[in-house]
Amino acid sequence: MKALMMCLPLATLLGGSAIAQTTTMKTLPYPVTKKVDTVNTYFGTTVPDPYRWLEDDRAEDTKAWVQAENKVTHAYLDQIPYRDAIRKRLEVLWNYEKFGAPQKQGEWTYFSRNSGLQSQSVIYRQKEGQEPEVFLDPNQFSKDGTTSLQGLDFTKDGSLAAYQISEGGSDWRKVIILKASDKSVVGDTLLDVKFSGIAWKGNDGFYYSSYDKPKAGSQLSGMTQYHKLYYHKLGTSQSTDKLIFGGEQTPRRYIGAYLTEDERYLVITAANSTTGNELYIQDLSQPNSTIVNVVANFDNDHIVVDNIGSKLYIYTNLYAPNHRVVTVDAANPGVTHWKDLIAQTKNALTVSTGGQKIFAEYLQDATSLVLQYNMDGKLEHTVALPGVGTAAGFGAKKEEKELYYTFTSYVYPSTIFKYDIASGKSTVYKKPNVQFDPSLYESKQVFYKSKDGTKVPMIITYKKGIVLNGHNPTMLYAYGGFGVSLTPAFSTSNIVLLEHGGIYAVPNLRGGGEYGETWHRAGIKMKKQNVFDDFIAAAEYLIEHKYTSKDYLAISGGSNGGLLIGATMTQRPDLCKVAFPAVGVMDMLRYNKFTAGAGWAYDYGTAEDSEQMFNYLYHYSPYHALKPADYPATMVTTADHDDRVVPAHSFKFAARLQEDQQGQAPVLIRIETNAGHGAGQSTAQVINQQADKWAFMFYNMGVAW
């Protein structure tokens, strides 16, 4: 471990800033953030909301506050002596060719490639025996690289393609249709599409989903209440698109649609929250056929993964919290007629199909086990993976004889493998040339006990031979929500930590999906505290076993993980040295008032549900739980175009945290401009963010880089 160094006084770092300084802050010239008298009353309890005005992202005083906060943040970061060296090291590490797994569409094989530091990856295509050519270059979409490709869908014959773009990171998309042969644009660009795939019906048109744009207030933060499924016929105006499902007759918050590969069945999923969905099908081979309901409640998750004629293959967690695959005839598809094809096991299951096979991808303590079955449910192969990690991408068309998948772990850079479906053999297809020697590092899975005795897994990654003396800079990262599973994945950014004797630790908290729906439901609503307890116990394990100590521990999480960090900070401000709450849900009393936030109620509950639910949320809501205390060095991060978790969450939390900070550690908010919730950011934006993160962490730990 390199020698420690003392930090310079913060006043020296910032020099004579012209930003007004509050009377309570002695070290950093935070902006004076005005307070208002806004209050809400819940079940007789009056709740002040002094920073409510920051919710208006269009207001001039909000914009001025953002500029003033960014000025303080960048002045602080600019003075860290090795910040630029970290950024340059990240540029070197990032500068290698990156490929996406290929897919065949018509006469062409398509794949993505980034030469190294390109803002966005480029879509190439290639015919057998010919050189690749550029099909789509998102780097040409905008001058600053912040307009990104967010979806590319081909007709079955590969002759037409529809691609979606996001501008400035927004969830609102535009859809552009191309003729694949000459890349010419077909028809008009579709506008205001959100949370949607593209489901082609032959070459005539496609299905897509969207919301009505908010008519009042901000289009970035306004509520998007009900999804609608449309059919767009090529060559016609979007204004004449036919409403297929949703709207006043069947109001649903999320509607998805896709066609079976033979294009016989339109499959519709409809939900009011992020967990559980209704299932519908429509037999498109029958003229004027009706939409048939298969599952009529929102209690469980169901999707149609394949069909052979009228035989449907359905992936579901109905009566099977770890999921199973069932079959049923589409003529009589009700739940009572379902028959198990791949029964539930002790491991959580996801599935995909390719080459007329079913690939069952199991999680064994958050790592991959992949089995190949035929369409009758007979086990054919166990896919031999190169190690313990995460395998994904086992999908292909029915006629394909081979497919491509990726494998990665915390110490295994993401590598593409070609898989022969008949023999079950894998060969390396593309291996990245990243500056990282896996033999120098190791990942170890441990199990620790949470507050209530629950056993929780955690994977700890570090350089071999590290001395466990409590002085190792450690990043503890987690999520813990919405049934999302955190599985091992390589991060170029983490090399900066690992090669300097640091430790990266990821616990699989309740609320996630690592052990199926039971694990998920153990961390929702009035069990949400389990998630925070699991995370705190992970930190205490690392400290107890001398991996690190309070003075060398940083905690990090984004979105729902940002909520996790905010709650941990307010409940245990003494736990760590540095905190990174990113794009977090920080106001648990009002999260459901913005964009699609109401759809998160299955996991969180709402303040309007009951007095008991209100009190529970009010107790842990990071924005409301803040009180005068000695908080860790904190860098809140958000973006001005985040229309999923609106930046007001982070704005309000940062303002109150600056007010309540009683210690000398900095409390900063870094607000990315022309960016959203994370997807589609340019390479330069990502590298700059990561450099700022590591510089802030090392500096506040007093560690020389």
Automatic annotation (TrEMBL):
What does it catalyze?
A: Hydrolysis of Pro-|-Xaa >> Ala-|-Xaa in oligopeptides
PANTHER family, alphabetically? PROLYL ENDOPEPTIDASE (PTHR42881)
Say which species the protein is native to: Mucilaginibacter agri
Q: What is this protein called?
A: prolyl oligopeptidase
Which family is this sequence assigned to? Belongs to the peptidase S9A family.
The role this protein plays is: Cleaves peptide bonds on the C-terminal side of prolyl residues within peptides that are up to approximately 30 amino acids long. Has an absolute requirement for an X-Pro bond in the trans configuration immediately preceding the Pro-Y scissible bond.
Looking at the record, the residues that make up the Peptidase S9A N-terminal domain are 31-431
Q: InterPro entries from the entry? A: AB_hydrolase_fold (IPR029058), Pept_S9_AS (IPR002471), Pept_S9A_N (IPR023302), Peptidase_S9_cat (IPR001375), Peptidase_S9A (IPR002470), Prolyl_oligopep/macrocyclase (IPR051167)
- EC number(s) stated in the UniProt entry for this protein: 3.4.21.26
Q: What class of enzyme is it?
A: hydrolase
Q: What top-level branch of life does the organism fall under? A: Bacteria
Signal peptide range equals: 1-20
Q: Name one GO cellular component term.
A: cytosol
Keywords tagged on the record: Hydrolase, Protease, Serine protease, Signal
Record GO biological process: proteolysis
GO MF terms listed in the record are: oligopeptidase activity; serine-type endopeptidase activity
Identify the residues that the record assigns to the Peptidase S9 prolyl oligopeptidase catalytic domain, covering every copy: 489-702
